[in-house]
Amino acid sequence: MLSENTIKIVKSTAPVLAERGVEITSYFYKTMFEAHPELLNIFNHANQKQGRQQTALANTVYAAATYIDQLEVLLPAVKQIAHKHRSLNVKKEHYPIVGEFLLKAIKDVLGDAATPEVLQAWGEAYQVIAQVFIDIENEMYEEANTNKWEGFKAFKVMKKVDESSLITSFYLQATDGSDVPAFQPGQYVTVRLTVSGEEYLLNRQYSLSDAPGKNYLRISVKREGAEPSKLGKVSNYLHDHVNEGEEIELTAPAGDFVLDENNNSPLYLISGGVGITPMMSMLKRVADKQTDRAVTFIHAAKNSEVQAFHQEITETINLLPNARKYNVYENPTASDREKKTFDLEGYVDYQKLQEIVTDKEADFYVCGPVPFMRNVIDGLETLGVKAENIHFEFFGPSINLKEYQQA
């Protein structure tokens, strides 16, 4: 338990953390990686370069300072981060390293403002916060171990399928012949690659895009960026160099953006771009286990050339007596207009949601780029959908979507 004085000091640092949080976390990562370059085998380098990891950590540190006396308020966010840590194989022994360099960053960046009392209070607070993460992550590791899956495991690419001009699916089976583990629709795996010319291992997280219960795991990867040296190193490598019969490494499925299979209320699955991947897992699970459930599948894409799973969605929807789908194209091609491959033109915004949504008490799952999610969530809230009925997943480090909107 933290003393009242420690809590008071930590909470008093919240304003400066709000102002200089990213500066502190950027310095933290720089000094930690200089001293422990082996940790670069764990982190997503692209998120580091784009500043997303620094911003996400700054949000977390600020939230910890604000709610240090009510850590239970942070548990949903802690669990979301813990899933990512477990998926990346972050272990108990990493936390003292993080604590050492976080305190160093606070001290060096804030200078005289980081008094001995402030540093001592944050040292005590960090121990408590770290233990919360460690305890939750230990439970997650134990759960993964019940499936006899510890750390990274080799999987062979059994099939590679082009789903669109940008997205390719990889069908994976364990190289050792073991069974595919159970997972929840919406979860993801971490893919680890050894790439020639790269000093460190590369890790990326990809949603599983098919229902549980198959004899394979499927990930569907969007090619990111035109120049692999600048963007999308992993996605480009998977597209161009990982072929059928070759192996990649995965950790056990993780993530808390999952379909509530105990709920039979009407369901809206709303995705933009590659955000369609967890929605495919959810849709196909409903087709397997909840065939009478009312489902509305809404997907936004530029046009049919980049939309993945067009035929698969249609076939799955046709299996469900209470299902409907909407393809919303931003810039349909002449062929799209001729063949009528889309239902609505433009963006998924309040006006379109007003046309489509018939049950505001339904459950809504949203996944896609941040601007897309911002439009959809704002639109749903304007329609009167309760916040607890809106579930969303952001690809990348955890962020506060509302704060991102205002940035």
UniProtKB/TrEMBL annotation:
Region annotation Reductase: where it falls in the sequence: 149-407
Q: Name one Pfam family in it.
A: NAD_binding_1
Which reaction equation describes what this protein catalyses? 2 nitric oxide + NADPH + 2 O2 = 2 nitrate + NADP(+) + H(+); 2 nitric oxide + NADH + 2 O2 = 2 nitrate + NAD(+) + H(+)
Q: What is this protein called?
A: Flavohemoprotein
Which organism is the protein's source?
Answer: Metabacillus rhizosphaerae
Which SUPFAM superfamilies is this protein grouped with? Answer: Ferredoxin reductase-like, C-terminal NADP-linked domain (SSF52343), Globin-like (SSF46458), Riboflavin synthase domain-like (SSF63380)
Q: Kindly report, in one word, the top-level EC class recorded for this enzyme.
A: oxidoreductase
- Purpose: Is involved in NO detoxification in an aerobic process, termed nitric oxide dioxygenase (NOD) reaction that utilizes O(2) and NAD(P)H to convert NO to nitrate, which protects the bacterium from various noxious nitrogen compounds. Therefore, plays a central role in the inducible response to nitrosative stress.
Q: Give the family from UniProt.
A: In the C-terminal section; belongs to the flavoprotein pyridine nucleotide cytochrome reductase family. Belongs to the globin family. Two-domain flavohemoproteins subfamily.
Q: So where does heme b get bound?
A: H85
- The organism sits in which domain of life? Bacteria
**EC number, UniProt record:** 1.14.12.17
